[in-house]
Amino acid sequence: MDVKRALMDAAARRVLLVDHTKFAREGLYALAPLTRFDHVIVDDGIPRAELGRIRDQGVDVQVVPC
């Protein structure tokens, strides 16, 4: 986990590619909050309420068809 955080800190741009199912449950750990990413790409299965909550935090989100 420390290596992944170091890579994020060193990156010029941080992009997260994630499918909508990752928002419906809790994981064992979190690398970083969504606000630490410059751009988030998620499939169109994400619930609109969840998408709105993410965008309300100022996160740049792109929804792509699956």
Characterize the structure shown.
Helix 2 links the parallel strand 2 (39-43) and strand 3 (61-64). The longest helix is centred in the first third of the chain and has 9 residues, at 2-10. Helices cover 27% and strands 20% of the residues. The protein has one domain (2-64). Strands 1-2-3 form a three-stranded parallel beta sheet, covered by helices on one side. With 66 residues, it is α/β, with parallel strands linked by helices.
Structural class from helices and strands? Answer: alpha/beta
| Helix/strand order | HEEHE
Helical segment count: 2
Beginning-to-end CA distance, first to last residue: 29 Å
What's the β-strand tally? 3
The 3D shape can be described as globular
Mean pLDDT: 92
Give the proportion of residues in helices: 25-40%
Biggest sheet layout: 3 strands, parallel
Percent strand: 15-25%
The low-confidence runs, each spanning 5 or more residues with pLDDT under 50, are none
Spatial sequence of strands, sheet with the most strands: 1-2-3
Describe the structure in brief.
The chain is an alpha/beta fold. The chain has helices at 2-10, 48-56, and strands spanning 15-18, 39-43, 61-64. The protein has one domain.
Task: Walk me through the topology.
Blueprint: H1 2-10, E1 15-18, E2 39-43, H2 48-56, E3 61-64
Parallel strand pairs: 1-2, 2-3
Could you list some keywords that capture this structure?
single chain, 66 residues, alpha/beta, three-stranded parallel sheet, 2 helices, 27% helix, 20% strand, globular
